[in-house]
Every structure is written in structure tokens, then in C-alpha cells.
């Protein structure tokens, strides 16, 4: 008899985006022809930078000729891309990371979800609330939690991000072995200072823990005080793995390219307490289960680091940041407490009422779609997330319509 992995039955069906879609389609049925402005999903809306497109095309042309054709590439990614990443994303910021510590992949979501495979079953896991659901669900699937009771899994440590702590959780009071952090944050848009991040690195060093640092929104950082990488913090090479993606950085959500940094100093321990380096474990996992990102896509990603590519990707992020700034200014002006919108494409708004009630109000009265915060965890109740991924004129219109709706 073929038996199933019963841990999957513990998963809470994510009704969030299904529920949003249901409410949106019912609104559209009742209001035919009325335009809806979507500031809900975390997906980019603007085309790939020109430099990336040119390199992408050239890569395809190389595949079309026997003399330049390429078959399987290195599982870890081509040297030409890994070198550029190490130089531009790390060494240029004083972070000591070498090309062979970088693993190119087809997504930060997969890497975030797959990394837990290299750790033991009985580790204690700390995850943020509100949270990007991948961190939680992949550990539930692997059987590292108990059942979900009242929105929380037994056996997990929840790191609460609230107004009281300025959306940066306090250090756990008990031992956490694996810690998930994401800054600039999805969904809150909050960013972390060097001093705050240093406290987490120090905690991890003292407790022989590992931090999984998701920096998918790094490209939106403009404030000098906000670290772009955890490796800007002293000692992080021993206790942190970092995830990056070209998805939000350069509009690659549909093109697929990302990377994970596993420094050679990063270690874990076996049941006897002996030290093992994670670089070797991840290399084994990656090489066994992954066959590399397509050559034209890696050429397109490499172009992000060209002179034109850098100008164009910065312009792309600046465009969304201008939207974010407008949303932050307007929502604050309407009397709402907000976080994010600076160094981030997300604005986390305290609606001062139930998340879904606020969602329905904005949908029905303003014709604007947002994301109810309650869908990201217990601490998200009462909040909504507004995304800056849209056209500037539409964002402007959305803000005007929200203002009018609330004045009614
Ligand atoms: C969008 C996003 C990613 C990127 O995922 P990809 O698979 O690289 O597209 C990773 N982490 C968070 C928190 C995100 O919001």
C-alpha cells in the first residue's frame, strides 16, 4: 500500500489568495465595467531591463549555433555570474564572500524551502509572525512541528513583529537552532538596522544557531544605515546563510534566477557534537537534486551587473519606490499608522479594524485590492499590506479613491 506523508495533513490550507480572488470576482460581477486597481500581489509589473533582454537574446542565439551551443552547465551556476555576484553584491560592500560560496538557482522560494533538508529533525525553529509562508510550510511538510492550533504550530517559536517592537522581533527567550529572518521584510516592509541585526548574529554565535537571511528585497534599500547583506555584520560568516533573488531586483519573477550564499565558515553539528560545514552539505544537495539555471537566463542575470544594467535596475526599483512613497504619504495623511514604504515596495497599514473588514471596504468603496494582513499570521490581524508594484498613475488614482471612500 502506498502511504502518504501525513505531515501534509497538518498544513493549513492557504485560503488567502483564493479568498481574495473570490471577493474580487464577486465585486466584478456586481459592478460590471468598474475598473479595479490591484495593489495586492507581490509580483512586479514592469518589463525586464534592456541590458538583460539584450544579453538574454544573445544567449539564445549562442544556443542556436553548434559552435557556441551549451548543454548542462555547472549545477552551482556559471563562473561568469558567480564572480560578478561576489564582487558587486558583497565585496563592494565590504562583505567577504567568494564566488565558490554562491549557489545559483531558479528561485529564492525553492532555496528557502529546500534548505531545511540539510538539518536534523529535532531542531527548534524560530519563525517570524507575520511571515512569508514558505518558511513555515516546508518545515511542517518535513515533520518538524506538531499540529496547528489556533493559527500556530506546536513546537515552533514565533517571533512577533508588532507596533510595540517597531516590527523587529525580540531575541527568543529559549534556545532557537534555526532562525528565519527577512529584511526588508515581506509583508511588513520594515527594515533592520546594523545594530539590530548584530544582536541576532551575536545570539546565533552564542547559541550555535543558524540564521537564514532572506534578502529578496535588498534592491529597494536606499538608507545608508540599512545593511544590504547580513555579511556586513561581523561574525555572520559563521552563522548565516543568505538568500537573494533577481525576481524583485530586476523583474525576473517570470524569468527565474536567484542565488544562495553558504559561506565556508558556516557549520552545523552532529548528534555527537562534532562540527560539519554546511557548504559541503548544500553543495551535495544542490548537485544531486538540481541541474542548473538555463544559460540564456544566467547571461540575462549577469547583465544586471553591467554599467547599463545597473542604471536600469536601479531605475526600475526607484519607480516602485516612488509609488511606495506616495502610498506611505497618503495613508499616513489619512491618519493610519504605517511601516514600510521606504527601502521596501510594501506598506503595512494598521487599519484599526479587522483585516478582512478593511479589505472589503477598500474593494467595495474604493475599487482597490490589497492583501489582508491576517493571512500572514496572527500578528497581521488588523493590518493590510499595500504593494507598490503597479503603474504610478494607477497608484495615484487608487490613493484618491481610498481618500474619497474613507470620507464617505
Ligand atoms: C518574492 C520573494 C522571494 C523571491 O522568490 P523567487 O522564487 O526568487 O521568485 C523570496 N522571498 C520573499 C520573502 C519574497 O517575497
Automatic annotation (TrEMBL):
Listed EC numbers: 2.6.1.83
UniProt entry tagged with the keyword Endoplasmic reticulum: no
Domain of life: Bacteria
Catalytic reaction(s) noted: (2S,6S)-2,6-diaminopimelate + 2-oxoglutarate = (S)-2,3,4,5-tetrahydrodipicolinate + L-glutamate + H2O + H(+)
Molecular function GO labels: L,L-diaminopimelate aminotransferase activity; pyridoxal phosphate binding
InterPro entries: Aminotransferase_I/II_large, DapL/ALD1, PyrdxlP-dep_Trfase, PyrdxlP-dep_Trfase_major, PyrdxlP-dep_Trfase_small
Pathway: Amino-acid biosynthesis; L-lysine biosynthesis via DAP pathway; LL-2,6-diaminopimelate from (S)-tetrahydrodipicolinate (aminotransferase route): step 1/1
Domain Aminotransferase class I/classII large: 35-388
Cofactor list: pyridoxal 5'-phosphate
Keywords attached to this entry: Aminotransferase, Pyridoxal phosphate, Transferase
NCBIfam families: DAPAT_plant (TIGR03542)
Name recorded for this polypeptide: LL-diaminopimelate aminotransferase
Provenance organism: Desulfonema limicola
Amino acid at each position: 500500500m502506498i502511504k502518504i506523508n501525513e505531515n501534509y495533513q497538518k498544513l493549513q490550507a492557504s485560503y488567502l489568495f483564493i479568498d481574495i480572488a473570490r471577493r474580487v470576482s464577486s465585486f466584478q460581477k456586481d459592478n460590471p465595467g468598474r475598473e479595479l486597481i490591484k495593489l495586492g500581489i507581490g509580483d512586479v509589473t514592469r518589463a525586464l531591463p534592456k541590458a538583460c533582454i539584450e544579453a538574454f537574446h544573445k544567449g539564445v542565439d549562442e544556443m542556436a549555433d553548434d559552435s557556441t551551443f551549451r548543454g548542462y552547465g555547472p549545477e552551482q551556476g556559471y563562473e561568469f555570474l558567480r564572480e560578478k555576484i561576489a564582487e558587486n553584491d558583497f565585496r563592494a560592500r565590504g562583505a567577504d564572500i567568494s564566488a565558490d560560496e554562491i549557489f545559483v538557482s531558479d528561485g529564492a522560494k525553492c532555496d528557502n524551502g529546500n534548505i531545511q533538508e540539510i538539518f536534523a529533525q529535532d531542531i527548534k525553529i524560530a519563525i517570524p509572525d507575520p511571515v512569508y509562508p514558505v518558511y513555515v510550510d516546508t518545515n511542517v511538510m518535513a515533520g518538524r512541528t506538531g499540529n496547528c492550533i489556533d493559527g500556530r504550530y506546536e513546537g515552533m517559536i514565533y517571533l512577533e513583529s508588532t507596533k510595540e517592537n517597531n516590527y523587529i522581533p525580540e531575541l527568543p527567550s529559549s534556545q532557537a537552532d534555526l532562525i528565519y529572518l527577512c529584511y526588508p521584510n515581506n509583508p511588513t516592509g520594515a527594515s533592520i538596522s546594523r545594530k539590530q541585526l548584530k544582536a541576532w548574529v551575536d545570539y546565533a554565535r552564542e547559541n550555535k544557531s543558524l540564521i537564514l537571511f532572506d534578502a529578496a528585497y535588498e534592491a529597494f534599500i536606499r538608507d545608508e544605515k540599512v545593511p544590504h547583506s547580513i555579511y556586513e555584520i561581523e561574525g555572520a560568516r559563521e552563522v548565516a546563510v543568505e538568500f537573494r533573488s533577481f525576481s524583485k531586483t530586476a523583474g525576473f519573477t517570470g524569468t527565474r534566477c536567484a542565488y544562495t550564499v553558504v559561506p565556508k565558515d558556516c557549520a552545523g553539528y552532529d548528534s555527537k557534537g562534532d562540527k560539519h560545514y554546511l557548504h559541503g552539505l548544500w553543495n551535495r544537495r544542490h548537485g544531486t537534486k538540481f541541474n542548473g539555471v538555463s544559460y540564456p537566463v544566467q547571461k540575462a542575470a549577469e547583465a544586471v551587473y553591467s554599467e547599463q544594467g545597473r542604471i536600469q535596475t536601479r531605475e526600475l526599483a526607484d519607480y516602485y519606490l516612488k509609488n511606495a512613497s506616495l502610498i506611505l504619504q497618503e495613508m499616513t495623511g489619512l491618519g493610519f499608522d504605517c511601516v514600510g514604504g521606504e527601502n521596501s515596495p510594501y506598506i503595512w497599514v494598521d487599519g484599526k479594524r479587522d483585516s478582512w473588514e478593511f479589505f472589503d471596504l477598500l474593494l467595495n468603496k474604493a475599487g482597490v485590492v490589497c492583501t489582508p494582513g491576517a493571512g500572514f499570521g496572527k500578528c497581521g490581524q488588523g493590518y493590510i499590506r499595500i504593494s507598490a508594484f503597479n503603474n504610478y498613475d494607477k497608484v495615484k488614482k487608487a490613493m484618491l479613491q481610498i481618500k474619497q471612500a474613507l470620507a464617505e
